[in-house]
Design goal:
Elements (H helix, E strand, L loop, with lengths): L1 E6 L5 H21 L4 H16 L1 E10 L3 E7 L9 H18 L3 E7 L10 H10 L6 E8 L16 E5 L6 E9 L3 E3 L4 E11 L8 E8 L5 E6 L3 E6 L5 E8 L13 E9 L3 E7 L6 H9 L4 E7 L22 H7 L6 E5 L9 H12 L3 E5 L21 E8 L6 E2 L32 E6 L3 E5 L5 E8 L2 E6 L5 H4 L8 H12 L9 E7 L2 E7 L8 E4 L5 E4 L2 E4 L2 E7 L4 E7 L2 E7 L18 H6 L4 E3 L6 E4 L7 E2 L2 E4 L5 E10 L3 H21 L1
Parallel strand pairs: 3-4, 3-5, 5-6, 6-33, 8-14, 15-16, 15-17, 17-18, 18-24, 34-36
Antiparallel strand pairs: 1-2, 2-37, 7-9, 9-12, 10-11, 10-13, 13-14, 19-21, 20-22, 22-23, 23-24, 25-26, 26-30, 27-28, 27-31, 29-30, 31-32, 35-36
Helix pairs in contact: 1-2, 2-11, 6-7
Amino acid sequence: MTGSILFDPLLSWPLIWGLAGAVLALLALQVWRGLPGWWLRGLAGLALLVALANPALQNEEREPLSDIVLLVIDESASQRISDRPGQSEEAIAEIRREVAGLGMELREARVADAEDNQGTLVMAALSELLAEEPRARIAGAILVTDGRIHDLDLAPDLPAPLHALITGEATDWDRRLIIRNAPSFAILDEEFVMTLRVEDEGAVPGDLPARAELRISIDGDAPRSFMVPIGQDMELPLVLPHAGMNVIQFELPEAPGELTDRNNAAVVQINGVRDRLRVLLVSGQPHPGQRTWRNLLKSDPAVDLVHFTILRPPDRNDGVPVTELSLIAFPTRELFLETIDEFDLVIFDRYERRGILPMVYLDNVRQYVERGGALLMATGPEFASAASLYRTPLADIMPGRPTAQVVEQPYLPVVSALGERHPVTRGLSDEHTPLPDSDAPWGRWLRQIELIEGGGQTVMTGAGERPLLMLDRVAEGRVALLASDHAWLWDRGYEGGGPQLELLRRLAHWMMGEPELEEEALRAEADGQVIFVTRQTLGDAVGSVTVTYPDGSEHELILDETAPGRFTGEVTGPETGLYRLREGEEEAVIALGPAAPREFEETLANGEAVEPLAGAMRGGVLRLEGGVPDVRLVSEGRNAAGRGWIGLTPRGAYLTTDITVTPLIAGWLFLLIAAGLMLAAWLREGRR
């Protein structure tokens, strides 16, 4: 029980102070006039003022509260290296025992790796613990960590000492691979430079060689080894092998005695993009669809278009000056013999044999396709005539053969069953809004050249279910055959139009080998630790995907069909690293986690970064290598750390359970005292 005097004034304090001033003034007047009873009147006035202040005795029943110690335990990835887990658990057990022996309570929080590669957020956990407890009961805070804390600037203002107990050994050393710079994308067939560094830190043995082996692999292929210097930045020139995502893995073999090999590897994902796609468009017979091809290709800033229109053969004599028919001479030899391999796509738009291109030139086009080029034939009636390009060496790579019949009637282009699974034509109707009063997904075309299927894939059909759009792979290249010159009707809005631009865009990009339009592909995308798997196929079903984890274990993933020819699934990766996926002959690789996890940027235990913060809060930073320090009680404001010990500050917090207020003297007694003093003053002055 504790007691204190409090006042419950009968009047407001300003009024009481005013009355006190009046009493002092009257007292001063009495002293000036020399009245002998002035001090008795002063005591009477004081008694009246005290009565107005109404003093009382307050007694409190208090229940003492135990002090609280905050303990934050670092369980991030770097704390699981070597014998640090054992050091941490030993320190935690000893702290629990000593804190309990001092009659204090312990509040604990464990900190794992933060999301999005933010590192170890110890101060955030400490702030949460502090917010849940009364500040008046906090006797101190203790961190069990390796000192690699990444949010020190968010440290809370503690009312008690802060201590850090550092794990690890003074003899630790580590080797790590540092990626100085890595682009997110690179141009295909162009060299780019990555900067790497192999760094040794800590108590490095003096007998280690000055160079280390660096292994490099792309997309999970067999690695290639190089000997690189240690402690120097290295510029590594690379050329991406294919378009789309390229996964490049760098790895250092584990050196004897190093702390961990978790930072000896790095995975970089670089998207391979084409620079400017070069397209050669050769137009023959003028027709309304010619401008459609030109507008489509010129609208894409990534396409470098070379366009020639041949209006007549050179031996035709109609009296028209040559200068009025062409701006430049048609460089046939340069285009079709010398520089054809520089083009990514060659398009013949309603072109027929006119004696301008010799058979050797067209045979070179065939060889260009077999070497990996792409050829698109947009045909008209001339393809069914005696001047057809089919009657050239190009026939060897054509997916269909003309019958010399031209169908001149309205028909509705239809995506075939195979086309519903092919990326070029799948979901094509979703790209166009039909007329409100029409059941057809798009408008009709009016002409088609009859073809007999060869070895290609028919993805669209026309009149009488005849092949309309055929695709094929020839050796290393690709060929597309469009058996109509009326695709432009969709662009003009005939009968509501259709997705003409989308169809031609997909067609051109498939021919140029865009990864997103491959008909047989296994793709993987990551969102955090979740891998989203997509299997594109022209078949009706696919098998399970075998996912190989970084540690070599495997998981079978069953895919669900979400669209024709498209099967998807997802799997959560348990750890960062390189994952390999395989389904049949299709393979893919993907990396989870950052190229260089923040937890392993610096693995040596070190408390230097925490020392300024702990010193400002009168705490200390001690290594657990020499044993767990003792816990002592220190007075508030005193230094709370020394060699082999840390201190906690008792706070003496309590809980008030009952309050009793008792007046010191009754009011009537104050009045009686005041009256007696005034009477005594009168009697004293009366006798004189």
